[in-house]
Design brief:
The chain is an alpha/beta fold. It has helices at residues 11-41, 43-47, 109-119, 140-156, 172-181, 198-205, 211-214, 221-224, 245-254, 275-287, and strands spanning 49-50, 66-71, 77-83, 94-98, 102-103, 123-126, 165-170, 188-192, 232-237, 259-264. The chain has 2 domains: 8-41; 50-287, Rossmann fold (3-Layer(aba) Sandwich).
């Protein structure tokens, strides 16, 4: 009989499970880092969803709409729609419409039609680089530059005084409008279903990732809105599943007076605007 002590059989399964656990943890960490790496590479594609005019295009809302060309400092050509009302004059002012991250300006034909019917306002809407008929590629900086080019067109070609321009931003366009309002004269700032910043939005969309610290695109409206000194109107749907209602409330809390918040009960991000929205906005613009 051998005098060598035998190892307890129970230790073998324990070691086997430890090895398996370590292997799972290692593979999980590799996958986690891999996902982060892929998201970093695809950041622009996750944020911007342009549709070229050759892929899909909707007819203008009425026969008064004019195609206009804008130019960035680097020569990039952008496209816009100038949508005046019948008998429009520059002293009546105009609305500069900054749209969201998806589609192109023609997708907002219905929205423009509603705004003009409810508010009797002339509207200039433009496409960011890479959207619709605009050249170039979208980025945070190029979106800001496009808004500046549209604003300059209103003043220089449309002869609209800066103090008569209503800045309207929907979704991602809200961040573009806030940036513009923090730097340029305007009559009022209207924000619809927008966020506080891209890091805040990313963290809510990907709560299992350190998204707030990884995203490079900022669109930091929360930091900029304190520099907006004209009246601010913010509308947000309580059922918004893309940009949570709480972000609209947080942005409103940071805005200067005078300001008004329009809560749209049961409205999701891509739902149509309610009659209440137009009533509130019309009242807000008449009072300021």
């Amino acid at each position: 009989m051998s005098n060598v002590a035998e190892k307890p059989a129970a230790t073998l399964p324990v070691r086997s499970w430890r090895r398996r656990l370590l292997r799972w943890l290692r593979n999980g960490a590799i996958c986690y880092v891999g996902i982060i790496f892929v998201l970093l590479l695809l950041e622009n594609k996750l944020i911007f969803h342009p549709v070229r005019a050759s892929e899909d295009w909707i007819a203008p809302p009425n026969s008064l709409v004019q195609d206009i060309e804008l130019r960035l400092a680097d020569g990039t050509r952008l496209h816009g729609w100038w949508c005046p009302t019948p008998g429009w004059q520059p002293d009546q002012g105009a609305m500069l419409y900054c749209h969201g991250n998806a589609g192109n300006l023609s997708y907002r034909a219905g929205s423009i039609n509603h705004l003009q019917r409810e508010l009797n306002v002339a509207v200039l809407i433009f496409d960011y680089p890479g959207y619709g008929k605009s050249e170039g590629k979208p980025s945070e900086a190029s979106c800001y530059a496009a808004a500046d080019a549209a604003y300059d067109w209103l003043m220089q070609v449309g002869h609209v005084p800066g103090e008569r321009i209503i800045l309207y931003g929907g979704s991602l366009g809200g961040a573009v409008a806030v940036d513009l309002a923090s730097r340029r004269p305007h009559r009022a700032l209207v924000l619809v279903r927008t966020f506080t910043s891209m890091p805040d939005e990313a963290q809510l969309l990907y709560p299992w990732l350190p998204a707030r610290w990884l995203v490079r695109t900022q669109f930091n409206s929360l930091a900029k809105i304190k520099h907006c000194t004209q009246p601010v109107f913010i509308a947000h749907g309580t059922a918004d599943q893309l940009i949570p209602y709480v972000l609209g409330e947080k942005l409103f809390a940071a805005a200067n007076e005078p300001k008004q918040f329009c809560s749209m009960a049961g409205v999701d991000h891509n739902d149509g605007m309610t009659a209440q929205f137009y009533v509130c906005l019309r009242s807000f613009l008449s009072a300021e």
